[in-house]
Amino acid sequence: NSPSAQIVVMGKTGVELGRFKFDASTSSENLQITNVVVTDTTGDNGGVYNVKLINVADGSQIGSTVLALNSGGATFNLSNNPYSVTKATVLRVKVVADVSSFPSAVNATHVASIGINQVTYRGAISQTQSTTPTATATASTMTVRRSKMTLNSFAVNGSATGRARTANDDLARLVVGADAGADREKADCSHCR
Length: 193
Hints:
By secondary structure, the chain is an all-beta fold. It has no helices and 17 strands.
């Protein structure tokens, strides 16, 4: 369960890289998560930092902020303060991070994932430790670029219907621009036909 693949502009903060769920719906006791390793499966190292796990339901941060996300993984060690998942519920978390600004960042793709047995948890009463998942959980591809194009359009000259046709009739105006965080150039196509 993750946001769709998208272009992320360098210098953007609080970027959601993916969503994952921890399913305790069949558990007979509360569970305590003690370790989570999130990796970048593309191997494009660097450029993603201040990585956080956030509880989707209440917006609280789970564990401490991890310095970077790379192919070696961002490890959230919760052993000193395990995160509880109530039995018969599902915990949904999102991985959020900041993207370096140009020129520190490079054009790259990033795919956050939680690999096989990269989550360690235990029963709150039994203290029996286990690992999950049994298959890698992978989020969508986030592509980091220096900028991305934005397109805005709006009608000109009022209504498009019921108008007398002329030799030079502007039907619409398109404004193409660059997203914030990059060098900007605008092309104003006010006479596109």
